[in-house]
Hints:
By secondary structure, the chain is mainly α. Helix content is 81%, strand content 0%. It has helices at residues 3-37, 41-69, 71-91, 95-123, 126-156, 162-165, 167-181, 195-218, 223-243, 253-256, 259-289, 294-322, 324-342, 351-354, 356-378, 386-411, 413-416, 424-447, 453-456. α1 packs antiparallel against α4 (95-123), α1 (3-37) crosses α12 (294-322) and α13 packs antiparallel against α18 (424-447). The longest helix has 35 residues, at 3-37. The protein starts with a helix and ends in a 7-residue tail after the last helix.
Amino acid sequence: MDRRRWLTLVLLAFAQFMLVVDITVVQVALPTIGDDLGLERAALTWVVTTYTLVFGGLMIFGGRLADVLGARRTLLTGLMIFTLASLASGLAGSATVLIAGRAGQGIGAALMSPSALSILTRTFQGRDRNRALGIWAAIGGAGAAIGVLVSGLLTAGPGWQWVFYVNVPIGAVVLVLIPRLVNRDESRERQSLDVPGALLVTASTAALICGLVHAGDAGWGSTGTWAAIGGAVLGYGVFALAESKVAVPLMRPQTLARRPVVSGTFLMLIATGLLLGLFFNTSLYFQHLLGFSALKTGLLFLPVALAITLGAQLAVHFISRVGGRVIAVASFALVAVGAGLLTQISPGDSVATSVLPGFLLAALGVGPVIVTATTTTLANVPAAESGVASGVINTFHELGGSIGVAVASTVAAASLAGSAPGIGGFTDAYLVSAIVAGVAAVVALVLVPAGKPAAVAGHGHAH
């Protein structure tokens, strides 16, 4: 094997690893960040959601930019932005600076991720490409597992700032080595960029999250809550209308209308929303109510993150045998049972018996849904649309996490405010997760295409 190509894969994997880790790495550090900077619940929510919101909202735009400017150039630009934004986040002394830094990280990630994948698929062919893509896919589970553990270690050690500083030396090394390993981009034809579409879908989702967070403080009857949610709905409507008239749209309406894509986006949106919502809720329950240290919280999260990876691997093994619909329905049911168990938690009980059983079950159920979302979508769309479909699915992976954290924060608001928090808000948030997962199982029974992905792969027909 070409040593140069595999070293390129290692560097691209490290770059992608940073992006995945930064989705979960702040979860354990949140209470410490809140104490040091004096952040309220709403600000803490934005520390988590801003990154995934901007990352997801601009990811397809980043892919388009890689097509126009070249993947290497776009990757290096995104990596520079991400590295500098990580440094700014670590140096932040206020909520405004920290949230701005997280937005900068999201912009950098949105340029890096599709560019790195483009370079990978261009660098490897045949069986080597399958192996490379397998390594790439495994980064997700490993990043989640290591993110929560590293967060606990760094927060308990040198301080929460180092969850951001750690990206700086890695980014600097990759910046130096990528130009030596990846060939210059070939000249490309000029293509139009749907900048308004990218900004509109991101702003609409930001308005939705703003409304959800505001509801936790002012209530669902508040004018501000419904003004923000109404603005989001209006923005999505304008986005859909505009995309049908743009020559090169960010998201092709024909692709979005395909049943496998609708199914995949639904599965990904709900799965990542449940996952990050549960992470957010449980991290604050451990530290805000039980008084656990960041290190202890990180260690408790590690088996949960490993359960996600295990669930994903089981789905990869069984999906070609039983089909995506069976796995999606069973997995959402498992999440519903796990979240239901979490509604019975009590501060006086051992975490090992009251929290971890339900948390592990829910995590085990989330992993297979994420695999099913991608597999059933790409197996049922024409090859010519697979790139766009993949970009749409990955976009909803990030946006789902943003919305999930906002909902969890809003429902748990009663337990996150004041100096003497109670358990009611946390159990309410777990109950909402259980209901959402149960409803999602029913919807998946109807929406997810029937049949086994392996049997339809390459045919390009939706069921």
